[in-house]
Each structure stands twice: as C-alpha cells, then as structure tokens.
Amino acid sequence: MVNGPRVPWLVLRTAIVVPGHHTQRRSVALVREAERVATERRVDLVVFTGWARDGGVTEAEQMCSEWEGPEVELLVEPTASVTAENAARTLPLLVERGIRRAIVVCAPLHLYRARYFFTRLYGAYGVATEFRVAQMPASVGAVLWEVAAATACRRQLRHARSELTQVVG
Prior knowledge:
The protein is built from six helices and five strands, in the order βαβαβαβαβαα. The chain is of the alpha/beta class.
C-alpha cells in the first residue's frame, strides 16, 4: 500500500456559461457574478453567449470585454438569440473540451427558463448543471418578457434538440 495524498480518478472539468441579457447593465451584473464564481471554484472555461439585435457588437462580445476575473479560457458564442439556443449552441463547445459540469449564471427571473433548457439539453450529453443567480432588481418589462417567453419553451426545446443532433450527434 502506498501512503500519500489521494489523487481523484476523475476530475470534472468545469465551465461557467453566461447567457446574455438584453441590457448592458444587466449583462455586466452577470459577468460580475461569473467572476465571483470563478474566484470561488476551480473553473476551466467561461463561455459568454448572446447575439446582437441590431447587428452590432453581440451580447457575448460585450460581456467578454467586461471580464476582470481570473485568467481562464474565455469563449464567445455570438449567435444565440433565445435561451434554448444559448444552451444548444454552447453545449458543443463544452463537449469538445471535455467539460462535464457547467455553472450557468443568470438573472433571477431567468432562472426558471435557464434551468428548463440547460438541465435537459446538457444532461442528455452528460454535462451536469448548477445555477447561480446574479442579484439585480426585477423590472415590469422583465417580468412580462419571462411570462411571454415561457409560452414558447416546449417548441424551442424541440428545435434545440434537433439542432444538437445535427451538431453533436
């Protein structure tokens, strides 16, 4: 028997995934929460995801440029326009890097939909999910957005699963 420190047989590689928010101020709050997570936990990768409504700088690029956290690989996924796409389009990036755990950072009102999509899509490919909520005030517009968006969840999940089978298999 060899005495000495125990070496875990499997070290789960971990990523933080940050879906964009429609406002710059709220997106920055998400980045700050992701930075807190990255200082508390060993993280291998941070992925920012979100498109540009007006064709300019994407939410993902804006968030990445705000990063002041620990030195870690940063990725930008600039095409996702809804939460289902955030999950579906970041998953291949995680899988190809051997990531087995994802910490999704989102707004408080966004937690329900984020959990709905990320746990179902990531879980099907062996990526465990956790969620961290960035503290920010809720606006009437945000509440209305979440209520309206909830009506499309099943359809968006079907579309995201279809997209994933074409990309990941």
